[in-house]
Amino acid sequence: MPVQCSSCAKKRAVLKRPKTGHSLCKECFFFAFEEEVHRTIVAAELFKPGERVGIAASGGKDSTVLAHVMKVLNERYSYGLELMLLSVDEGITGYRDDSLETVKRNQEQYELPLKIVSYEELYGWTMDAIVKQVGLKNNCTFCGVFRRQALDRGAIMLNVDKICTGHNADDVAETVLMNILRGDIARLRRCTAISTASEGDGVVPRCKPLKYAYEKEIVLYAYFKKLDYFSTECIYSPNAYRGYARTFLKDLESIRPSSIMDVIHSGENLSVRDGVKMPVQGMCGRCGYISSQALCKACVLLEGLNRGLPKLGIGKHHRLHGKLLSQEPLTEKEEKKLRAAEF
Fold it and tell me: Which residue among 155, 213, 301, 334 is least enclosed by CB atoms within 10 Å?
């Protein structure tokens, strides 16, 4: 016997929400999903009328759903926002070039301005070239650091007040687990924040309107809305550390469906005892980007690539920051250690 929608009781249900277990028709699911995002935005006071907001657009399901929902809610509730798309071209042949075509179609479908910034124009390197230097083991470190800074630089070019990203509940829970496993207390305290205030020049505030949306429901929303998105995984990410946290979280979710929200709430309520030393945020001595060291991570990674020492930014490199800032050459012993990956 067909199951009726538990919300309107008029139409046949087409799905059972992973988040609540309710059986809903398509229209009721769309409205419920959009209203939850709206309540998240209002409760956290993510935006103010008149703000220019850049939507980080990769062409994937999360950013495509985010762009669609932000446009819908901006019109439905008169947020008064000026929305635009911001994409980063990492330079990954057969992956990013294809996904950017999806972003360009989204630009036309949603009638939003689009700005694309590339690693090659910002850093002089593409991810294809970086992978040839470092291999597949640590390549995600380079990409993550460069992409974060590239988004900020693109946001400054667009003169936006905020960047909103497509991070969902699964992403946030995975990050909590990763930081616990790394023992990274500083990032653990920050990673569950739904928004970040401007931490210095060159850093644009960010927010996560989809923070409490399950990945499964984002997929369902995109599928039933027939949204145009790119679904292929990055060709360089099979060995990414996040993948192991994701697998572990999915195993937990299969046993206890509330595991995702439970992990997020644990991270949100974390307290650190008095006396624990935390990194002090300052400015990079070279590019002026926010950093807790003399040089930001991006500058160190880039320096290593340009010197033919890609391992420079992977290990304990802090003792070399003074030399890097002054452009001093490394000693033969220091170079030998770096090439042997002992730092």
Answer: 334
The answer to whether 67 and 57 are in contact (CB under 8 A) is yes
Q: Each residue of 244-287: pLDDT tens digit?
A: 899 999 999 999 989 999 999 999 998 777 777 777 778 888 88
**Measuring CA to CA, which residue among 297, 63, 59, 259 is closest to residue 174?**
259
Kindly state the tokens that stand for 331. 């000693």
For residue 281, what are its two tokens? 């945020």
- Stated pTM of the model: 0.89
Residues contacting residue 304 through CB under 8 Å, at least 6 positions apart: 310, 311, 312, 313, 314, 338
Residue 61 DSSP SS3: helix
16 Rama class: left (phi>0) / alpha (psi -120 to 50) / beta: beta
d(CA 82, CA 147): 23
